[in-house]
Every structure is written in C-alpha cells, then in structure tokens.
Amino acid sequence: MSTTAAAHGLLTLAAGEPIDRIPAPHIEYAQLAPTLIVVGAAVLGVLVEAFVPRRSRYYVQVFLAVAALASAFAAVVGLAAGGYGGDKAHIAAMGAVAVDGPALFLQGIILLSAIVAVFTFAERRLDPAAHGNRVDSFAAQAASVPGSESEKAAVKAGFTTTEVFPLALFAVAGMLIFPAADDLLTLFVALEVFSLPLYLLCAVARRQRLMSQEAAVKYFLLGAFSSAFLLFGIALVYGYAGSVSYAAIADVVDGTVTKIDPALADTMGNDALLLIGGALILTGLLFKVGAVPFHMWTPDVYQGAPTPVTGFMAAATKVAAFGALLRLLYVVLPGLRWDWRPVMWGVAILTMLAGAVIAVTQTDVKRLLAYSSIAHAGFILAGVIATSAQGVQSVLFYLGAYSFVTIGAFAVVTLVRDAGGEATHLSKWAGLGRRSPLTAAVFAVFLLAFAGIPLTSGFAGKFAVFKAAAEGGAGVLVVVGVISSAIAAFFYIRVIVLMFFSEPKADGPTVAVPSPLTMTTIAVGVAVTLVLGVAPQYFLDLAGQASTFVR
Amino acid sequence: MSFPLLTVTAALPAVGAVLTAAVPAARRTAAKWLALLFSLATLALAVLVAVRFEPGGARYQLTESRAWIADFGVRYELGVDGIGVALIALTALLIPFIILAGWHDADPLENKSQRWRPTQGFFALILMVEAMVIISFEATDVFLFYIFFEAMLIPMYFLIGGFGDRATSSRSAAAAAGGTDENAAAQRSYAAVKFLLYNLVGGLIMLAAVIGLYVVAGNFSLQEITAARAAGTLDMATNTERLLFLGFFFAFAVKAPLWPLHTWLPNAMGEATAPVAVLITAVVDKVGTFAMLRFCLGLFPDASKWATPAILVLALISIVYGALVAVGQRDIKRLVAYASISHFGFIIMGIFAMTSQGQSGATLYMVNHGISTAALMLVAGFLISRRGSRLIADYGGVQKVAPVLAGTFLIGGLATLSLPGLAPFVSEFLVLVGTFARYPVIGIIATIGIVLAALYTLVLYQRTMTGPVKEEVRTMQDLRLREVLVVAPLIVLLIGLGVYPKPLTQIINPAVEHTLSDVHEKDPKPQVAVEAKNGEAAK
Predict the structure, then answer these.
(1) CB-closest option in B68, B161, B197 to A490
(2) Where, by residue number, does the polypeptide cross the bilayer (chain B) (predicted)?
(3) Would you kindly state where each structural domain of chain A is located, as residue ranges?
(4) ipTM score of complex
(5) Residue B224 is part of which domain span?
(6) What is the pTM of this model?
(7) Who is most buried in A1, A551, B129, B296, counting CB within 10 A?
C-alpha cells in the first residue's frame, strides 16, 4: 500500500497536480453484469481445472457454465426490464461499451444459444464408452499427438477435455462485448477474446483429430488475417478522425464535429483514409459473418470442428458479428451510407447466390449447412442494407430465429453415427426417415425452416428482412433473395428426399439415443422454430423495441 | 364474437391429422376410421357453412378478424363468398371418398420396422392438406392465404413421393426383381421433387410480389385493398401493378396448371396413387384457379385486363394441347392428367373472359371437374390395382368380367367429355358461351377441346373395356362394396348437378357479380342472346 502511495506521489510531483485529480475509471458494474458474470465464471473454470479432482471436474464445469450463462441471461433480462433497452440506454465504461436495445437483445440471444450449445458440449452418451469411461465429442487430451502412445494412455485413463467449458465461456464473454463495443479498440479486443478460444475449440475433436486440427489452423490463419485487416482499418480511421470512439468518428464523418484542433483539421479532409479504413474494418467483420468473398474458411472449419462447437460457432459468432456490423454501419458510418450501400449490395447479392449455388454440389451434411449459413448471411445482409429501424428489427429477429435452428440442426447431426463416429456423408443419411422417423422428421423441420417454408421461423425471418429491404428501396435484393431461396430450397429438399424416399442401406448409420441434454437442445430448437413461425408477433415487438442504437 | 365457424371448419381436419398420426403403429385400422370420421365431421361443418351462407347477403360472410402479426400488417381474416363456399363444399365432399378409396393404399407391404408407420402418415397428411386447402379458400388476408398456399406443398410432397401404387410395387416384389421396385421409387421421388420445385419457385416469385404489394398498399387485407382500389384512394403505377399481377399469376398458373407450366402434373398424377392424384387435381389445384378469381382480379383489376389476351391464348393452348397429348397417352393416369390440363384451360378461359357467364361457368367447372375427375380417376385406380399396370394396352374386354367397374368408368369418362345431362356439360357450356360473347374466335377454337375430349375418353374406354377379354383380365374381380360406396355417390352427384345445377349457381352468381365489378366490367351487349338463352333453357 505504501509503495503505491509513494509511486503516486512521484507521479503527482512530476505532473504537478494534486493526487485526487487523477480520474479513476468509472465502471458501471451492474450494467456490465452479464459480461462480468461470464468472464468471472470462465476464470473460475480455469481454477476448477487446476484444483478440482479430475473425477468431478466435468460436473463442476457443466454446472458452472450453465449457472453462469443462465444468471448472465437473467441480468440481461433485468437490464432490459429496467429500461436500459430504451430510455435509459447509454454508453457505459468510459465510452467503451454501449448498453442499449440492440446490445441487450443480441446478448440475450447469444446467452440463450450458448446455454443450449453447452448442453451439446456436455453430451456423453453418443459415443460408446472407452475403457469404461463415458466420453464426449472432445479429445481425451488435446495436447497429445493423434495416434500416439500418450493419446492411447489418455484415453485409457479416461481423460476428458473439460477445458472446453471455460473456453466456451471466454468466447461467450467476447461475443457479449462485440456487438456492444462502442469504440474501435474495444471492438478489436472483443474480437480477439472470442476468436482465440474458438480456434482452440475447433482443434479438439475426439474423432478425425487431424481434420479437426487442420480446420483450426485454417481458421486461425484466416482469422489472424482478418484481424490484421480490422486493425489496419482501425489505424487508418483513427488517423482520419483522431479518435477511436464511435460517436467521435461519426461526428467527424457527418461533419458535425464542433471542436476541431489543428491535427484533426489536417486529416479530416482526407477521405482516402476514411474510405480505405472503413473498407478494411468492414472486411474484418464480413469475414466473421462469413460473407462472400470472405467465406472461404466456413466450410472447412464447419466440417472439421467438433459438431457441437460448429453449432455454437455458427449461431453465436454470426449473431455477435452481425451485431457489430450493424452498430458500425448504423452508428459510425451512416454518413457514408452512399458509399457503403453499393458495396454491401454487391456483397449481399454475391453471398446469397454463391452460398445457395455452391451448396447444391455438397455431399457432406456439415459442409452443406456451412454453405447454407453463407446464404443466410446474405439474407441478413439484405436486412442490414435497409438502413432503417425496420431493418434493425428484422435483422435482430432473423438472428434469433436462425440461431436456434442452426444449433438444433447440428445437434441432430451429432446423433447420426456409424463405426467411424458421426456419419456426415449425405449418402449415409439415405432412408433415415424409415429407421428413425422422429429424428428425420425433426431434421426435416429444421431444413424446412432453413428453406423458409411458411409456418417456420425461417419464413417469418426471411419475410421480415425482405420486407425491410423492399421498403428501403432494395427491391432488386428481394428478387435475388427469392431466386436464391428457390435454389437453396432444392438442396434442402434433396436431403429430405434422401431421408424419406430412399431405401435405407444395409450398413447405414444408426441414430444414437442422446441424454436429456441434447434432447433439450433439439426440443428447444424445434419449439422456437415453430413458435416463431406461427406467432412471431411478440418477438417482433421485442426486436422492434430493441432496434434503437444509443450514440 | 360469434362462433368462429370458418376457423373450426379448417382446424377440425388439422386436429384429425394430429390425432391420426398419433395412433400407435399396430392400430392401423383405427387410424383409418379416425381419419374417415374427421373428414365426415368436416363435411358436416362445410354443409353448415353452406347453409348459414346467404346468397343475397354481404359479399364476404361468416367473417372473422383477429390481430396476428401487426408488424407485418397481417391480420387473421377469414370470410367466404359464394365461390369459396362452393369450393369448401367440394373439398370437404371429396376427402371422405379419397380416404375411402385409399383405404389399403398405405398398408405396409411387410413389417419392415415397428417405428415406420406409413398408414397413419398417409391419412394424417391427407387431412392436413384438407385443412390447408380449406383455410386457403377462407383467407381474405393475402399473407394468410400465402402461408397456407405454400405450406400445403409439404404434405402434398410427402403424399406423392412417399406412397406409390401398391399394385405395381407388389408386382415387382413378386417378380423378386428389386430393380424395378427401386426404379419406381426413383420415378416417384422425381415426380415429387418436380412438383415441389415448380410450385415452390412459383410461390417464391409470388412472395416477392406479396412483399411488393405490402410496400405499395401498407397492409394485406383483401377487402381493404379492393375497396381502396375501387374508391381510387390507392394508386398503383401501371408498371408496378403489372409486375405484381404477374408475380401472383405465375404462382397460380403453376398451381392450376396452365401451359407451359403444366409439366409437373402428369408426372405427379402418374406416380401418385389414384386417391392422391385426385387430391392434387380435384382439390389442391383448385386453389390456383380460385386465387386467380379472388386475388388477381380483386387486387389488380387493370393489370388483369391488360394481361387478358395473353392469358386467353395460353388457356386456349392448354385446352387444345392438353387434349391432343391426352389422345396420345398410353398410360391411363397420365391420360387423365392431360385431360385435366385441358379442363383447367377451360376454367382459366372462363375466368378471364370477364363475363358473368364465363366466371360462373368457371366456378361451376371447378366443382364439376373435381367430381368428374374423382369419379374417373378413382375407378381407374381400382382398375389399376387389380391388374397392376397403368398401361392401356394391358387391358381389354374388362366390361365382360367386371361390368359394374366398366359402367362406372364409362360414366366418369362421359362426364369428362361433358356429355349433356351430366354436370360438367353445364359448366363447359357456360364457359364457352361466356367466352364467345366477348371473344368469338377464341370461343370457337376452344370447341376443338370438346371434340378431342370425346376422342380420348371413348378411345380409352374402347381399348380397356371392350373387345376380346385379355388373358390377365379374365380373373378380374368386379367392384367391392367399399369401392361402390366411393363411386356411387359421385355418380349420383354428377347426374343430379347435371339436371339441376341451380343450388350451386344460386350461391356462385352473386359472388361473380362482385368479382366482375372489381374489374369494372359489365357483360357485353348480347349479340347472340337468343342462342344463349336457348342453351340455358335446354339444360
């Protein structure tokens, strides 16, 4: 204590100011509670790995993760009920984090989908027990070389990678900040906080470990690449506006800035800095949402990663990244609307068409879903481009609807297994509807929702974004969207044909009976899909109330 | 709020579908009876709708209106006009016969798996289609209509792709060839996918138009938009209206189907079992022609008139082309399918002739075509199930071994060729008169369709029923009691409505007057009034 006081004394002497003038950072802990709870639990999870006996780690970790996510969700609900989604929305933590409607709505979706995703992480009944120990989808010991003696020893000893739970919590914490970040540095830090755990999670599959590790390396390299883009863009925009704060940049972009110092006056006329910087930042974000032409990583990573991780990533990353994209375009760059809209038009059209067309040729369920997620990113972009409150509302709704369909669909993929683990090749799904009608019917519901058939959440979401786009004057996007929906419908239907109208093969896969955990995940997915399809009004209202950004 | 009769009428078969699907695997027969019971109860409700409906009253009756998705401007609005009442009655009437005719169509060949329950699924899907079709006839909110118009594709798709002709597959199973069985399954799944893709693409294009309509009009209420159009408070740019019209019409023309978007129908009807084929052509496709009347004309009157010449030509091509191709068919079910394409040409021609006779005739035609095709196709299905072949050449002399079957087949055929005295004659005559009044040349050319209809039905009858008895036909059984129960009421209806169509026309005519006033059309001055009068008196 005394040493710090001495250090302060030295500093104040040098600055020549009294000690009480140094402003302590003002943090609104209550308003940041959702993130803080998750980070705290993640740190606790690391300690659990260190100190709790291996035997009971799994239970402690699962409990900790679910409890943390659930209480964080309760905190989000509490904040929203307290008016922080509307009148009391403001920017907390010294201008770093926004607490407003879109942020709270997206945090709620991320937390809920993380809870159901953690259920699939914790599933231990699908694989046959190894040496009398129940195993999950993750490697016994991720650090041991695939096929090595140490791996065999780890499997024999019944090790499991319970680290996945704290890793997932760290990722969730980053995702919670990402759509709420209100300055570019926070944005970047949040990006790294959720990306790094995801790279690791991709690498720890129990089966086909080499493929999993390859996926992780690809994801890491391309992810690092996009981070560099983002960071470079941030630097250029800072150079232009002299600030990383969203509000300050927006003022300079709009030309409403009041206090112009000589340095700013010198740079703010340089549009090249702004345009190139803005484009680079957008590139980094579009990479995360998986938009064409920055989508190359998606199929490989989705295919190689452990399926529960794929489901989590496909849902939550997309939500967080679209949240950040929305905030950037609606808060920071509305003044550049006429510059970015044509570009985003092009990206949206390319994404919708390429995702749908390439998906037609896929033969692996996970790759198919990966390309379908690209096409969906295109549909969501159509809503983003609307630049209206309806646009935000429709994107928020779509993200909520899409997350649960995705997690549910990947959860079903984990059930269909043969001797080599999950049977993801489409030919193996032939006749599934005759062997296990219920599983096939559930998967068909998810596929119909992806295809946007009425009475599913997919239709309500698609209708919402297309309507917003049409009202925003982007009728062409609607027509392209409708065409690519038709193309996309073809391959979803093909899977349904395969499941229901083909004869089952003699050596076909079996459907494992999951524990109540995965069942819950799938049941929640189906329930949300149908409820949002038939009676979306309540959730549209919610999204509508949450559609105003604080600035 | 009064009793929501329309909602209940549509919901009852849906409830029946869920209950039927939930019947345990071993209780197949119970599932069938349950489905039949629900379809009959729905028929009773449909009759109640028809009784409660006052022909001279307001345009839309028994209306219901509830908030649904306010953010989309969507309300849950139901209401029926005379056209809707007639088609709901047709749907509710045909479903029990379809269920009864398909009684054994979905029995599992052998007990492959305890959990695979095709029988329950088959009847549940039929009831689900019924529910969705009925609500499509009731919806007066464009969005609500669209949802069920699209959603009914899914159960239809499973009905076509999942259930083939028992006879053909069992024959090949008997031949122990496996290969042909797989081939049949592949063709069936091809037909199902073709059906789905055609209709889905149509539906998605309509979706773009539905969104466009919302952008222009701000809500989806058919009554509000029609009223605003009539009062001139809602202006649409000419091009916008035409594009939106085309978006809607395309979807309905695929569904109806109109040449050149018809090619899915022969595949679907050929591969599906006879009762499902009837469900497609007699029930589901009617939604397409019904929607042309209700939505295309009501929402886009000017564009409808603009497109009329082109549509009439396409309808004419459908009439002649469908009939010509039917003459050349070797497959009984495909023949009926092409005949249906020809008939849908007549219906669409009647709608777009924009005369009261034409549109009344078209509506009547929808009902009569449903009954006559059901009669012909279901008997054809019984015939096919006995011999295990769909090829005309495999039959001959059936009337000597199975006279009742042959007789009912003949009556179904004669109804299809619109023999005077049977119901379809009245409607076909009205359509032709209505068209002739405004477009004499087209009316005259369309009569070729009648001549060709006589050709394909009579040749079909001659080749299958008359002549020397073929070896394989020699042991053919006549109709069983269940089958007679299916056919007899349909034939009674065909004769009854042929002699006395007034109960139907009484309901339909006021509705048609409203539709005509939507497009600001009046009947043209009668140039051939004397003949028309005589014609009506003659029937």
Answers:
(1) B197
(2) 6-26, 33-53, 82-101, 121-137, 143-163, 195-217, 243-264, 276-300, 306-328, 335-354, 366-384, 404-427, 439-461, 481-500
(3) 25-545
(4) 0.82
(5) 5-108+115-538
(6) 0.87
(7) B129
